[in-house]
Automatic annotation (TrEMBL):
Residues 1-162 form the PPIase cyclophilin-type domain. Belongs to the cyclophilin-type PPIase family. Its EC number is 5.2.1.8. This is Peptidyl-prolyl cis-trans isomerase. GO terms for biological process: protein folding. The keyword GTP-binding does not apply.
Amino acid sequence: MITFKTTLGEIKIELDFDNAPVTAKNFQQYAEDGFYNGTIFHRVIKGFMAQGGGFASGMDEKDSRESIKNEANNGLANARGTLAMARTQEPHSASAQFFINLADNDFLNFKSEDVQGWGYCVFAKVVEGMDIVDKMTLVDTGRNGFHDDVPKEEIIIEETIVA
């Protein structure tokens, strides 16, 4: 169990080591190392997702470890309340950034092992605090440099607790 203490409240997350062992272990290691402390949810799109894990306050990008293998072909769906790894166009480029699905985002699910079909790996779910995640969507967002949908008032992960 991982708890994010945010400026809006607590979010408790349960990792799925059975279906996404590499991804869950990677996320837990970042959490244990305190990597997420002081990071912000830097992209929030109402009815879609809230993304975090890569930027400190002020949109200061953090250095992350090596990319991991995409385990999106694990049978898990990008359903409301699940966490998935963020990545670039390259299917196996996820490292520290993640997002929480605010809706059932089936179009993000694995379809095939090619660039268009890989999808986004679900590795955890919110077990408590989905109301806090929903609160994120009430914050005004805008553009910040090259980034869209950035909350104008920062939503900060103040502390990460691994139990």
